[in-house]
Amino acid sequence: MNQEVFFGNVNGMCAEKVTMTKVLAHRGASRAHRENTVAAFLAARQLGADAVELDVRQTADSLLVVHHDARIAETGRPLTDTPFRLLPDYIPTLDEALDACEGMWVNIEIKNNENEPDFDPTDHIAELVVLALDRRNEPERWLLSSFRLATINRCRLVAPAISTAWLTVEVPEGTALSVSGFGHRALHPYWENVDEALIRECHDQGVEVNVWTCDDPEAMKRLAGWGVDGICTSVPDIAREALRTL
């Protein structure tokens, strides 16, 4: 299966097939800058990333913001109990983050873990994210993902034009078939649980594979040699150099 650019109309340019593993900046260039901040997203492009991966949650006043943890580090208070005006300045809104990612496609992880204080069993947050993206009218730039399968299934239902991916740690037998059956574009497994056979199985099902979070240049080369579609990394500059030397 040929590895292709995920989305083909960035900056008004037509899509072209590229036989090259893509570099996704994990929470932006998070080794060089504070993760999930505008500075990290701006740096990602400068350091050669093809895409940015970021995390989205909801505030008490229903604003979508970019933050990995369910609680604010400085206060321990859940984001869902905190209005936006009381958040630390470094936490951007989703719109601010996407503005900073201009020229790249964006993997938006919807955080909806049943063990966290902001868990939404109705998956309404998926609809809020889709509405925010619809206002931008750039469906080819987005890839929605979540560890909760029901959340991305909801995304597929309400926004079939936006690509989706299932995040996993382990990869049980039959995962590729399940991802394909639900209509998701990609599987996002933890990189140490990936081998060449899994990538081949996913590709046979028409499913792309983007691994997280690999910062080891030699492992990056090995994964790319196996045909992985994307590598999510905290060091996009190191990843770019590693892939360039293949």
Describe it for me?
With 246 residues, the protein is an alpha/beta fold. It has a domain at 27-111 and 121-141: Phosphatidylinositol (PI) phosphodiesterase (TIM Barrel). The protein contains 8 helices and 9 strands. It has an 8-stranded parallel beta barrel with strand order 1-2-4-5-6-7-8-9, surrounded by 7 helices. It starts with 21 loop residues before the first strand and ends with a helix. One of its GO terms (molecular function) is phosphoric diester hydrolase activity. Residues 21-243 form the GP-PDE domain.
Ordered list of secondary-structure elements with their pairings:
Layout: E1 22-26, H1 38-46, E2 51-58, E3 64-66, H2 94-100, E4 105-110, H3 124-134, E5 142-146, H4 149-158, E6 163-167, H5 175-181, E7 186-188, H6 196-204, E8 208-211, H7 217-226, E9 230-233, H8 236-244
Parallel strand pairs: 1-2, 1-9, 2-4, 4-5, 5-6, 6-7, 7-8, 8-9
Antiparallel strand pairs: 2-3
Q: Helix amount, in percent?
A: 25-40%
- The number of helical runs is 8
Report on the biggest sheet. Answer: 8 strands, parallel, barrel
Helix/strand-derived category reads alpha/beta
Query: Outline, from the CA principal axes?
Result: globular
CATH architecture of the domain at 27-111 and 121-141: Alpha-Beta Barrel
Order of helices and strands: EHEEHEHEHEHEHEHEH
Q: How many DSSP-defined strands? A: 9
Question: What share of residues are in beta strands?
Answer: 15-25%
Enter the CATH topology name of the domain at 27-111 and 121-141. Answer: TIM Barrel
Name the strands of the widest sheet in spatial order: 1-2-4-5-6-7-8-9
Low-confidence parts lasting 5 or more residues at pLDDT below 50? 1-19
Question: So, the CATH homologous superfamily of the domain at 27-111 and 121-141?
Answer: Phosphatidylinositol (PI) phosphodiesterase
What is the alpha-carbon Rg in Å?
A: 17 Å
Q: What separation lies between the terminal Cα atoms?
A: 19 Å
